[in-house]
């Protein structure tokens, strides 16, 4: 038993040393800012993750892990605005220039996150969320009464439980997945990325899902209340709902377009693709 | 006389000092050292001026040649190494410079006149070599990619692909509008396509800089 405990102690020491060695070169910084109501928080991080969650009411806490000494954090706090920028020094690259942020903000904060590689994450906020990334994974969850704006070139976008705000997403090649997203305006503009919507289209909003070549799949429950128009110039369209016919400004060509209403037609849903496939599925 | 006064009048003295200046030199070692240094520099300058600086002493070149031969850096002991500047050889070859310039000039003129034909002949090769930006038809796209290449070369291919996609989107949208100018959706496609292109430009300019 003595031998086992000695051996166990040696293993613990070795593991502790291994953890220390792996962390060599990394530094951790924590920044605190006092702010008022609805502060504006901006994080500009070329390489690395940014995660934003709600914290104390009048405080912003930024915890940053810098992966090398080739990057430093520039901070600016003016009134109710906090700007954090990862400043790359000479010789920095994607690996050495990486900073990972975990940010706690007041729930009513307006947040702007920018990163080339990401990932970018925000959750449980009531303030506007703006995210921009090249290849960054964008993930926004549980945001209500606020606007969500996302711009990405090729990073995938996932929005979940977004309510009662404007949602505007522009993606060139990244796929966009919307789950339980509803509000007065939901607009997705994609070039080659696929668009997936799974929700009930709320009550009284405008939903516009447009793509150039990406497929569009919208899944809604049978009780959805929608006025839907779908059209693909060169692709196929498919519809699982029984639609009450309505007039359109363009000729309805079977297999390329459909239009009609379901229930009380509370929300307007437009699904347009130039050459992608469109499918309105019933859950 | 103070040191300051001595230094002020020093440049005016050519070859001689007044009694007062000599007295100061005898009692002031910094000024005395200064005068000694200036005299040494002056002597060296005269020496360099009087010797033929274009052609070092032949013994210098000879010793360099011997050293190079010993190191095995030259293989033709009979012929002079490239470091050796032989005056007679240089004089013989000096006419080559203007002759060479004239030949280059004539070559350039001939090439310029042939340029349209050569460019046309090379077009397929150029097209294949620049296929990645074939769709980035506008000058702006090319300039953008050059900026990206300069600051973030690893991103160039990605931006070129993005530009290809949005330009294709714009072309399709323009075609739709042309077919039916009253088609609102076609107009929306076109606006969306241009919005996407503006985002590509914005991100390339903002974030291609490391």
Q: Major beta sheet of chain B, specifics?
A: none
User: Structural class of the secondary structure composition of chain B?
Assistant: mainly alpha
Q: How many domain regions of chain A?
A: 2
Beta-strand residue percentage of chain A: over 45%
How would you characterize the overall build of this protein?
The complex is a heterodimer of chains A (about 280) and B (about 210). With about 280 residues, chain A is mostly beta strands. Chain A has two domains: about 20-115, no CATH class; about 145-283, no CATH class. Chain A has one helix at about 1-20, and strands at about 25-35, 40-45, 50-55, 60-65, 70-80, 80-90, 100-105, 110-115, 120-125, 130-135, 140-145, 150, 155-165, 165-170, 175-180, 185-190, 195-200, 205-210, 215-220, 225-230, 235-240, 255-260, 265-275, 280. Chain A is elongated. Mean pLDDT of chain A is about 90; it is low at about 20. The longest helix of chain B has about 35 residues, at about 95-130. In chain B, helix 7 (about 140-150) runs antiparallel to helix 8 (about 155-180). Chain B has helices spanning about 5-10, 20-25, 30-50, 60-70, 85-95, 95-130, 140-150, 155-180, 185-205. By secondary structure, chain B is mainly α. Chain B folds into three domains: about 5-50, no CATH class; about 55-90, no CATH class; about 130-205. Chain B has nine helices and no strands. The chains are: A mainly beta (about 280), B mainly alpha (about 210). The interface of A and B includes residues 153, 154, 170, 173 and 191 of A.
């Amino acid at each position: 038993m003595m031998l086992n405990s000695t051996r166990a102690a040696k293993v613990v020491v070795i593991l502790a040393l291994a953890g220390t060695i792996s962390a060599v070169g990394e530094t951790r910084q924590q920044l605190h800012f006092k702010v008022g109501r609805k502060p504006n928080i901006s994080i500009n991080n070329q390489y690395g993750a940014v995660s934003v969650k709600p914290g104390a009411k009048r405080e912003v806490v930024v915890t940053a892990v810098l992966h090398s000494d080739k990057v430093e954090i520039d901070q600016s706090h003016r009134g109710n605005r906090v700007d954090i920028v990862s400043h790359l020094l000479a010789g920095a690259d994607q690996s050495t220039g990486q900073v990972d942020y975990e940010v706690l903000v007041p729930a009513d904060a307006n947040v702007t996150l920018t990163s080339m590689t990401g990932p970018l994450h925000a959750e449980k906020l009531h303030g506007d969320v703006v995210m921009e990334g090249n290849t960054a994974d964008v993930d926004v969850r549980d945001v209500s009464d606020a606007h969500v704006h996302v711009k990405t070139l090729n990073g995938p976008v996932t929005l979940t439980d977004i309510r009662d705000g404007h949602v505007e997403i522009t993606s060139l090649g990244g796929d966009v997945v919307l789950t339980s997203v509803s509000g007065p305006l939901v607009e997705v503009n994609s070039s080659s990325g696929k668009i997936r919507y799974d929700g009930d289209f709320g009550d009284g909003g405008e939903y516009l899902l447009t793509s150039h070549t990406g497929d569009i799949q919208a899944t809604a429950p049978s009780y959805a209340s929608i006025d839907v128009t779908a059209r693909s110039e060169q692709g196929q369209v498919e519809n699982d709902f029984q639609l009450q016919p309505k007039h359109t400004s363009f000729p309805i060509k079977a297999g390329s377009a459909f239009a009609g209403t379901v229930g009380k037609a509370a929300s307007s849903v437009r699904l347009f693709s130039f050459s992608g496939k469109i499918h309105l599925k019933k859950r | 006389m103070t040191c300051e006064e001595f230094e002020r009048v020093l440049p005016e003295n050519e070859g001689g000092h007044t009694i007062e200046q000599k007295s100061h030199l005898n009692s002031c070692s910094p000024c005395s050292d200064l005068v000694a240094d200036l005299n040494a520099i002056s002597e060296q300058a005269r020496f360099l001026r009087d010797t033929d600086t274009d052609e070092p002493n032949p013994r210098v070149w000879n010793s360099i040649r011997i050293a190079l031969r010993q190191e095995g850096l030259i293989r033709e002991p009979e012929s002079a190494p490239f470091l050796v500047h032989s005056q007679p050889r240089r004089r013989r070859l000096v006419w080559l410079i203007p002759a060479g310039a004239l030949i280059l000039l004539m070559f350039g003129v001939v090439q310029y006149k042939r340029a349209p034909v050569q460019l046309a002949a090379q077009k397929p090769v150029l097209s294949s070599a620049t296929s990645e930006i074939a769709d980035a038809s506008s000058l702006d796209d090319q300039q953008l990619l050059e900026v990206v290449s300069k600051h973030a070369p690893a991103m160039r291919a990605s931006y070129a692909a993005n530009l290809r996609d949005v330009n294709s989107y714009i072309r399709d949208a323009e075609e739709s509008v042309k077919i039916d100018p009253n088609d609102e959706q076609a107009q929306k496609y076109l606006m969306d396509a241009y919005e996407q292109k503006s985002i590509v430009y914005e991100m390339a300019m903002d974030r291609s800089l490391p």
